[in-house]
Structure formats: C-alpha cells, structure tokens
Specification:
Helices cover 36% and strands 11% of the residues. The chain contains four helices and two strands, in the order ααααββ. The chain is globular. The chain starts with a helix and ends with a strand.
C-alpha cells in the first residue's frame, strides 16, 4: 500500500514517515544514552526527487542530480566526486 502510494505520487517524505524508517530526535535520558553509545538508526533518507524538492524549499534553484564523478563546479580542487558512490545521491544546486 505505502509503496503503491509512493509510486503514484513520488512523496518519499510520506513514505519514510509511514514506514517509520526515520526516528525523531530524542530528549532527556534517551538523548544522553544516544550521546554515549551513538545513534543507531536513520534520521531520514531521500531519493533524487525528494532531495531536489527539499533544497528548493530552502531557496536553492537549478537543482540537478549528477552521476558520480561529475560536477558543474569549475575547479573542484581535491574534492572526492565519487565518495560513497554506491549509496549516495549527487545533487548540486545554486542559491543566489
């Protein structure tokens, strides 16, 4: 059911919340335990569409998903353009 809804509308945020894949930030003792032993789950995850929408909501334009190793940055220097390529979305956007 959730996957069918996602396939129909592409709303990854709703899919993640519906499946409870993201954990809300903790407070109090749980937060202290998280600081001591570390967080053990996902805070959120995105697909290319939902990540593009998110950066647009924060005022970025010209969001483009790129293949690993590609960039529109004229001189990226020593930036690793393939870091974690098997588990990443590469997106560049502008904010004027």
């Amino acid at each position: 059911m959730y996957v069918n809804e996602y396939a129909a509308d592409g709303d990854a945020n709703r899919l993640v919340m519906s499946l409870r894949l993201a954990q809300e930030r903790t407070t109090g003792f749980k937060r202290l335990a998280e600081i001591v032993v570390g967080f053990r789950g996902h805070r959120w995850m995105y697909d290319a569409t939902s990540l593009s929408l998110l950066v647009s909501e924060f005022g970025f334009t010209a969001a483009n998903v790129l293949d690993p190793g590609e960039t529109r940055i004229p001189d990226p220097g020593h930036l690793n353009l393939r870091e974690r390529e098997d588990e990443s979305i590469y997106l560049e956007a502008q904010r004027l």
